[in-house]
Write a structure and sequence with these properties.
With 159 residues, the protein is α+β, with helices and mostly antiparallel strands. It is built from five helices and four strands. The protein is elongated.
Length: 159
């Protein structure tokens, strides 16, 4: 069971996983040893899945980013599962979401150029028999691009 200090630790670590134990302990009002034990427990119990480094995209040539809405040929679990398995193996695809509404999946795709995206789309969406149609929207500018949970979402799943 998470208490308020556990949740504060989770929020702090998702902002910067390289924070020192001393910084974390001071922020949440714990001793160094108590903080270290809590962080170790959060890892061992699966509340923390992995630590990653975010690349500063301003340092690199900007890729072409696309939000792609995909409709599958049949509303069957086996078709969706097969598509999800195959699309998650594509290096260019950085996000895969099953969605409600007119489409079945929302993808975020990164490519080197419009031409490279066109080749990718022809190979994947044009050749895979499970894809009935797709719609591409190119991202022009990002104003917020976070992959963190807000504090109000830190409510545990009940068994």
């Amino acid at each position: 069971m998470l208490d308020p200090r556990d949740k504060r630790l989770l929020l702090a670590l998702q902002r910067d996983a390289r924070r020192t134990n001393a910084d974390l302990a001071e922020e949440v009002g714990l001793s160094l040893s108590a903080c270290a034990k809590r962080v170790a427990r959060l890892w061992s119990e699966g509340y923390l899945a992995r630590a990653v480094a975010l690349i500063d995209r301003r340092r690199f040539r900007k890729p072409v980013s696309a939000a792609v809405l995909v409709t599958l040929t049949a509303p069957k679990a086996s078709v969706s599962q097969d598509f999800a398995r195959r699309i998650t193996a594509c290096e260019q695809v950085t996000q895969v979401h099953a969605v409600t509404g007119e489409f079945d999946f929302l993808l975020i795709v990164q490519e080197r150029s419009i031409d490279a995206y066109h080749d990718f789309a022809q190979e994947v969406f044009g050749e895979w028999p499970s894809v009935a149609s797709y719609r591409t929207n190119f991202l022009l500018r990002s104003f917020k691009n976070e992959n963190t949970l807000p504090a109000f979402c830190l409510t545990e799943v009940e068994d």
